[in-house]
Amino acid sequence: MRFKLVHTLLAAALVLGVAPLASAKTFVTIGSGSTSGLYYPTAVGMAKIVNEADIDIRANARSTGASVFNCRAVGEGQLQMGISQNNIAYYAYKGRGVEAFDGKPVDNLRGMAVLYPETIQVLAREDADIDSLSDLKGKRVYVGDIGSGTEQDVKNVLGAFDMSLDDLKAPVRGSSGSAVGLLRDGQIDAMFYTVGLGASAITEAAQTAPIELVSIPSERIEALNEKYPFYTEITIPGGTYPGIDDDVTSITLKASLVTSSDVSEDVVYQFMKTVFADHKDAFYNDIPNPNLKKYFTLESALEGMSIPLHAGAVRFFEEQGIEVKDSLMPPS
């Protein structure tokens, strides 16, 4: 009787022209970062856009340790997509530059789009007597969550000042959100935070404690750029954060969206078309990350891409009339 019922339902579906599995959804988890940064609301916002669209993808965002974790988890299939600094994505793909990837390249890592620049911001308490990065010697400094892109940035930037983590009184680790609280309460003297300009955590800290941004001299940035071409100079305009009125020179990278070659071409293409084309207004206006509207365009979405694109991304960009360089084509 049960067999007859199933057979009847299948026959009815065929008569009505309905494929029994046509409504199957592909589930996508997007790795982000700390809930106090910009990766998390960006991932949440993209997932919301996808879920509210009439496509066969269901998406959710996951708070993670950020770039290093995301690249590794995407490669292992724990995540289908993730947000990462472009330099960390490069290190992951090449299997060098970061201890987590040394000799272990994530060769199935693929790029989707460059989203916005993010800046290495050095915050210090005004009462800590820190006027330059050299003054961090002997200080209590937050250096990033374990395995995060911020941690690697700190090592590279200190190296440009002939310093290392050993020169600090106490390299403090943990989440960036917790570090902001420690800085506000005077339990640390300074912190590095690689994040988009206008991050809410820094805004809140500047509103509640005597905090300043430490400038990095142009000549030091140039020397850093010679060794690590990902790092370029950026000016943080005065007024970006409450009480910090002067322009500050610092270093910028690019936040990028990555995926795995194991994710299907159609899924990546549908995701990108939905978020970056069909619902671009929501991408610009509904996601609480001002850098998206200020910096993201399809024309700039490949600038700073450091790994080969996914086939679905190539399809999307070419459909939008954006030229894809041979160097960004997926390996055959």
UniProtKB/TrEMBL annotation:
<keyword id="KW-0732">Signal</keyword>
<protein>
    <submittedName>
        <fullName>TRAP transporter</fullName>
    </submittedName>
</protein>
<feature type="signal peptide">
    <location>
        <begin position="1"/>
        <end position="24"/>
    </location>
</feature>
<dbReference type="Pfam" id="PF16868">
    <property type="entry name" value="NMT1_3"/>
</dbReference>
<dbReference type="InterPro" id="IPR011852">
    <property type="entry name" value="TRAP_TAXI"/>
</dbReference>
